[in-house]
Every structure is written in C-alpha cells, then in structure tokens.
Amino acid sequence: MAGLTERQKLVLALLVRDYVDTAEPISSGRLVANYHLDFSSATVRNEMAVLEQRGFLLQPYTSAGRVPTKEGYRYFVQQLMGENELPAPIQEMIRHQFYQARHDVDDWLSLSASVLAQHSKVASIVTPLHTEKARLKHIALISTRGRQVLLVIILNNGEVHQQTMVLDELLPREQLNAIAEQINLLASGMDAKELEGISSKLQDTPLEEVFAVVYRVIKQAEVISSGDVYRDGLANMLSEPEFSEPEKAKQTLELFEDRGMMDDLLSRTVFESDAPGVHVIIGGEDTWEQLGDCSLIIARYGSKEYAMGAVGILGPLRMAYSRGVSTVRFVSDLMSELISESMSNENLI
Amino acid sequence: MAGLTERQKLVLALLVRDYVDTAEPISSGRLVANYHLDFSSATVRNEMAVLEQRGFLLQPYTSAGRVPTKEGYRYFVQQLMGENELPAPIQEMIRHQFYQARHDVDDWLSLSASVLAQHSKVASIVTPLHTEKARLKHIALISTRGRQVLLVIILNNGEVHQQTMVLDELLPREQLNAIAEQINLLASGMDAKELEGISSKLQDTPLEEVFAVVYRVIKQAEVISSGDVYRDGLANMLSEPEFSEPEKAKQTLELFEDRGMMDDLLSRTVFESDAPGVHVIIGGEDTWEQLGDCSLIIARYGSKEYAMGAVGILGPLRMAYSRGVSTVRFVSDLMSELISESMSNENLI
DNA sequence: ATTAGCAGTCTCGCGTTGAGAGTGCTAAAC
DNA sequence: GTTTAGCACTCTCAACGCGAGACTGCTAAT
To answer: How far apart are alpha carbons B138 and B287 in whole angstroms?
Structure first.
C-alpha cells in the first residue's frame, strides 16, 4: 500500500478534471492529446491499470475509457485538489449582493442558497441558525386579530423564533401581557430541560397553553428547524446527465425533499464534528448509505458561542469539487462575518 | 358547431378516464371491452373520428389509439366530469390532521401542501395569506442582540409580517420603543400609497431606517410574498411517465422553481377573477403559454374582507381532474373555515 | 344507423452487422 | 529497467431490416 507516484497522481488528477467536464469515460489517448503529456498513451495505460487495481478508477465495460470511483474522487479531493479561492471579481459581486440585503437577516439565507446554486451549478441547501443549548431570554405576545396571537421568543444568543398561534379562547390585550410577563419571570434563562421541569406546575393555569408552545419551540431550536431550510438550484442538478434516467432523478429528488434525512446529515456532519472547515462527503460512505451516488459539500457558519447553521451543496459524484469547496467556504465565511458583525456592539458595516 | 351527442360524450368521458389511468393511447376495442358498451367497436371508431375532427382527440400516429387533446380535457372538465366530494373518511382524516396543528397557523400552510400532494399524487403549491389593500395597524420593535432587531408589523386585517433587520447603529431599548411609538402615531391606518407620501418628511430622522423597511413590507404585502410559498410532492410528479424525458422534467421543475412565474399565475388567476370557486387551467391556454404541458388546479382561501391566499396542485395534462378538484376544493374550504374561525371572537373548536 | 370483415398502416422489439474506439499485451527501442 | 510502437481483441453503439401485433378506416351487408 505504498503511495502513488507523481505521475500516477498527475494521471488521476487530469482524468478527474476531464471527466468532470465531459461526463464521458476518459481514454489514455485523449489525456495525452489534451494535456500534451511528454509520455505516450501506452505509458498512461499502464498507470491507469495500476490506478484501477488500487480502486481509484474503473472501466464501465471492458476496453472503454476509465472513470473515477468514489475512492478516486476522495483521493483527488484530499490529496490532489488545490485550494484555490474564488476569483476576486466574483467575491466582490457576492459581497455586493449581500450588502444589498444587509437589513434583512432572513434574506441572507435565501441569498446564500441562490448564490451557491448559481456558482456551483448544482443544488444548494442552507439551514437557519440554531443553538445547541438554547436558553429563553424573553417572550412577547402580540395580539393580531381574534384569537390569533403572535408569540415572539428570543433566545439568549439573540436567535429569534416567531410563532403565530391560535388561543383556545379570546383574551384581552392586558391579559396577554400579563401572561407574557409571568412566563418571563418564571422561565427566563432556562433551557429546554429546566422548562420541562416546571411545566407540571403550570397545569390548568392560564399560562399552560402559551407555555407549551414556548417549550416546544425551545426544544426544536436544539435541532435544525427543517421547516425553514432554504433550497435552490434543483433544476440545475437535474440537467446533469447522471440524472437522465428518471429513477435516479426521482431518488435524488426524494433525498432532497426528505427533511428528516437532511437534518440528520447536516447536524451529524457539521455540528458533531469539531473540525470547523468545509466537509466533503462523497457518495454513501460508511454511515451515509442514503446519499447514494451524490456528493455533499458542506460547512457551518456562525460561531460556537452564539449559534450555528450550515450551508452546502448537493450534486452528483461527478462534480467540480474544487470550485464547490471554494464557493461553500467563501459563503460560509461571509455569513459568519456578517452575523458576528451584526451581533457585536460596534458600528461596522 | 352543434353539441356532442350523448354517446359521443360517453365515449370521450370513458376515454379520458381510461387514459388517465393507463397513460397509453386508448383503442376502440379496449373501450368496448372494459366498459361492456352495448354498441360495437366500429361504432366507437366512428364516434372517435367525429371527436377527432372536433379537436377533442388525436392519434399519436396513424392507426394508433386515441389520446385526449387539451380541448378534450377542457370539455371533460367543464361538461362531463361529475363533482364528487372527497370520501367522508378521508375528509375526517384531513380534519384531524389540521386539528393537531390548530395552535400553529404556519403549520396550516405546510400541512395543506402536504395533504394536497399526498391525495392528488402530484405537486402542490400553497401561498400565504396576503391582502390587496394592506393598511398598517401597529408595529413593534424588539431588540434581540447587538444591532439585530425584530420588526413586527401587524396589518389591519390581522396579517402579521416579521422581519429581522440589522440597524446601522446600536440603539438602546428605550430608543427603539420610542421609534416604534412615533411610527405608530404617524402612520397607523395608512396604506402603501399614503406611507410613500410621508416618507419624504422622515428623511434624515432616526425613523428613516425603520420606516423604509415598514414601507417595503407593506408594499410587498400587496403581492404574494413568494418567499414563503410552500411546495410539496415534487417527487410524485416526476414519477409520472410524461416526465421520463429529462428535458420535460427539467422544464417543469424550472416552472415550479420560478417564483415570479408562479406569483403571476396565482395572482392573476385567483385574485383578479371574481369567481371564488376552483379554477382549472389546462396546459398553456392563450395567456398561459408558460404552463406548457402542465395543468393547474387552484382555488383561493380566506375571505375578501381579511386576506386571501391560494392553494393548488400542478400536474401533467393527464391528471385525475375530478379527484384533484375535490381535493383542492376541500382543502381551500377547510382553510377558509379555520381562518375565519380563528379571526372571529367566538370560542369555537 | 349499425356492424362485421378486411386490407392497410404504423410502431415496437429483436437480432444482425459493421464501424469505431480503446484496451492489453508483446516485442522492440531507449 | 523503463518506455513505446504495433497489433489483435473486445465491447458499445447506431443503423438497418424484418416480422408480429395492434388499430384504424373503409366498404358492404344487415
């Protein structure tokens, strides 16, 4: 299990690069011609044979060109792919787009999704901020009309959750304020576990109904709230040739629509890991059988003290990893920057 | 241009029914055998020839079975399709699901989307409530952390808009309250036009920044806010045989993702029309070229006094219209009912 | 007005075939 | 020992042809 020679690495890198572009099996002759290599196609064939035996390449059928395996992609991403930044003009453009949306935090998320989809040419996912240890700071109850009220829940990290709810009975505004005030006094500073502890005391009081919702929201804040996950670029992805068979396309679409699955994936990968960088998951390795023949490039944003979310892109195995990683890294860093700025007390912009 | 005979109607109705099930061109013999008709296949062939000449049917190629045209579907929907209600047990089931979510208005929307997708087997779209004449009732500014504040805008119809915003400079809580109070005094009861009128007076005052956002939100409330449109059942739709060619699938997906298009479609169809019932748009008739080979079944919910939204399903031309219409009607009625209940002052539920 | 019968037409699936692309191997060259 | 030219071999893919099958349209009889 010695490492690969320099020439083998070169062949693998070029092959991956070419295959990502063309989606067709790459032949030895093609590689020599395209990149003006100073050794012959026969030599390339020999190297390919080695790479195939190592499990980095395979032939779709006897005597066809080679295609990278999952292992091949992984080696490429970990060892061969350079870390190049997004070109400066594009960085500027994206920054400008975020500047336009500087007053509206919710827009940051959809903008991120749109930027990722546009620049990576595959599908994107962006989750909202969430905290591991959510503590209640403050709630407000605002009467809107009839029995409908708006419950605003602010967490100690500055995260805001809003929830329209319908009360069982109509209450006057003063009573709403009183309920909010009581809950604030009683429960401020508590996390989900502590809230559960006092919930029994509130049985059959007027607070019960509102409190139940507060508890549920705080509890949900500990996992990614899947309702507000932003997605974009689905159509991008389906135009890739790997999804020409409708079965594949359907499968991938279901993966994309399945909230539980995505939640699990994101939280496990991004939040349980201590590595803060960009994660690249190529196909269903080990635990991620469900990903099938898709790859996910993902990173978290925010900071550990306040709250974190995740941004990522989902595409076929044959995707432009280098570009994808640069894009995800840039967007996640930008989001982190914007958020920490808006949380701070200084007057930047 | 005389009407169709009873027998011609029967043939058309049965053919549409069979074709929706099988997705294959229907032959005269098949129709006679399946439905035990008391006339022969030759007679059916003659009737088919008439229907084809009228533009209701066509043959994919010479000497194949017949397939309904768009006109054929339209005639079927308008003249032949019976109006049957959703089966009572299913109605009960859906009501129960909504009952579970009775405290959370936002859940109604996603639940509607999910119910529609599940029962119609195609893709669904649900827009949030919106008003044509939005008037400001009341705003609240809640500090969350750093320069981030939550701006809550309540319209006179009870509609609530929330917007997280980032202020240019950090303001203490008292000052936020003061700003909110001043805006409430100044602008309460105004619509977008009137707000625009006073915006010049606020230039270079501390109110300017917040006021700009209030104005924008009210203005946006007059069109469907596309950000919060719920969708579901995409994967359903792509498993239909009409989307086996990737081009078609991509086209439809783009239609589905394109917010501007959908907004336009929904608002024009549902809100400009005075007919409150269920609308069926079959393929790109006249103005709706973009729909291509898809059909849309759509209805509004809510009430004209307060606010309205739209629920609908999007599928291939070959869809189960009868079932679709029943489902959309039931869901839209149920939503209207729930909303008017929650807006009223009585204590139902 | 309806229907049986039949010739005509078009699709679809299947097997064949030939061109083309690319490999693996061997033997020669460096 | 490494590299390379040359070549036989393998496999896919598109094109073609062909026959079976499915329906129709028409005509003539009922």
So the answer is: 39
- Looking at residue A112, what is its pLDDT? 96
Query: What SS3 state is found at B312?
Result: strand
Nearest residue (CA) to C1' of C23: A63
Residue B122: predicted pLDDT: 95
Give tens-digit pLDDT for A85-101.
999 999 999 999 999 88
Burial of A286 (0-12, 13-18, 19+ CB in 10 A): exposed
**Does any strand D atom come closer than 7 Å to the Cβ of A43?**
yes
CA of B148 to nearest chain A CA: how many angstroms apart? 6
Does the pLDDT of residue A6 top 90, yes or no?
yes
The predicted-structure confidence for B38-52, as pLDDT tens digits, reads as follows 999 999 999 999 999
Mutation for testing the B interface, residue in A341, A342, A345, A347 having most B CBs under 10 Å: A342
B348 pLDDT tier (thresholds 50, 70, 90): very low
Domains, in order of start, for chain A: 6-80 (1.10.10.10), 88-130+225-343 (3.30.450.40), 136-221 (3.30.390.60)
In the stretch 92-131 of chain A, residues with CB closer than 8 A to chain B read 102-106, 110
